[in-house]
Design goal:
Oligomer: single chain
Number of domains: 2
CATH architecture of the largest domain: 3-Layer(aba) Sandwich
GO molecular function, one term: ATP binding
Shape: globular
Bound molecules: adenosine-5'-triphosphate
Protein name: Branched-chain amino acid transport system ATP-binding protein
InterPro entries: AAA+_ATPase, ABC_AA/LPS_Transport, ABC_transporter-like_ATP-bd, BCA_ABC_TP_C, P-loop_NTPase
Number of helices: 10
Keywords: ATP-binding, Nucleotide-binding, Transport
Pfam family, one: BCA_ABC_TP_C
């Protein structure tokens, strides 16, 4: 089995008296799909925000690919290979699908502001390479027919896929997905789960995702971590977590 790509060690985070995460530790193996589940307010989004540097943990450390951090910025996280989608997608609604996906490469650009402003140096070559990369990922996610479409005109489920493409175009080693299937009907959820599985299988991308639909989680993830009130309640293979009495009692019956 592959070693851990991500390790969380005793991570704690509080917001003015609200303890969002308490002494949280677990490993995410390279190449796995790990699902974070738990009731609303359990700390799942806060945890993703700590991993990619949106929040700084009050205590504990994060080890990514053998490098230890107490804090990391979102910019540095992206450079190290940590990609992210947000619960409420962060797309530019008035831009096209292609432009949104290209925006996902902004943090990977080597072109300086000066080169950009005067369209010189690496600018043109980089632009061509980025465009080719964006088009490849758009095709991979079956979005080619919508590449020139303005995002706001697309159905919600398709927009979520554009958000996935935007996060994926930077070729992250670790992809954090915050409720990629939220608000979808069952058919859209199955389709999105299929794409997430394909990303994992084709690119070997390690994925940590938050999802409330336990049926989807059990079919998709090889590793499940259950949180409640910022603490870890269970951590293991889906079957083991599913039959854990504490989890059954406290979470699997919870309707969100
Ligand atoms: N920016 C913030 N300021 C203050 N409190 C916050 C902030 N973000 C989260 N919290 C609090 O931290 C706790 C954990 O919230 P978090 O959003 O991480 O939970 P969650 O498991 O992702 O919930 P949900 O399933 O509703 O998205 C909650 O009590 C929440 O109110």
């Amino acid at each position: 089995m592959a070693g851990p790509l991500l390790q969380l060690r005793d991570v704690s985070l509080a917001f003015r008296g609200v303890q969002a995460l308490t002494g949280l530790s677990f490993d995410v193996a390279e190449g796995e799909i790990c699902a974070l589940i738990g009731p609303n307010g359990a700390g799942k989004s806060s945890l993703l925000n700590v991993i990619n540097g949106v929040y700084r943990a009050d205590a504990g450390e994060i080890v990514f690919d053998g490098r230890r951090f107490e804090a990391i910025s979102p910019f540095k996280a992206a450079h190290l290979g940590i990609g992210r989608t947000f619960q409420h997608n962060a797309l530019f609604k008035r831009l096209t699908v292609l432009d949104n996906v290209l925006a996902g490469l902004g943090r990977h650009s080597r072109t300086t502001l000066f080169e950009n402003a005067f369209h010189i140096g690496r600018d043109a070559a980089e632009e061509r390479a980025f465009r080719a990369r964006a088009e490849r990922i758009i095709a991979f996610l079956d979005l080619t027919p919508y590449a020139g479409a303005v995002v706001s005109t697309l159905p919600y489920g398709t927009q979520k896929r554009v958000d996935l493409a935007r996060a994926l175009v930077g070729e992250p080693r670790l992809l954090l997905l915050d409720e990629p299937m939220a608000g979808m009907n069952q058919e859209e959820k199955q389709e999105m789960a299929g794409f997430v599985a394909e990303v994992n299988a084709s690119f070997g991308t390690t994925i940590v995702l938050i999802e409330h639909d336990v049926g989807i989680v059990m079919g998709l993830a090889g590793h499940v971590v259950v949180l409640d009130y910022g603490r870890k309640v269970a951590d293991g293979a889906p079957e083991a977590v599913r039959s854990n009495p504490d989890v059954i009692a406290a979470y699997l019956g919870t309707v969100h």
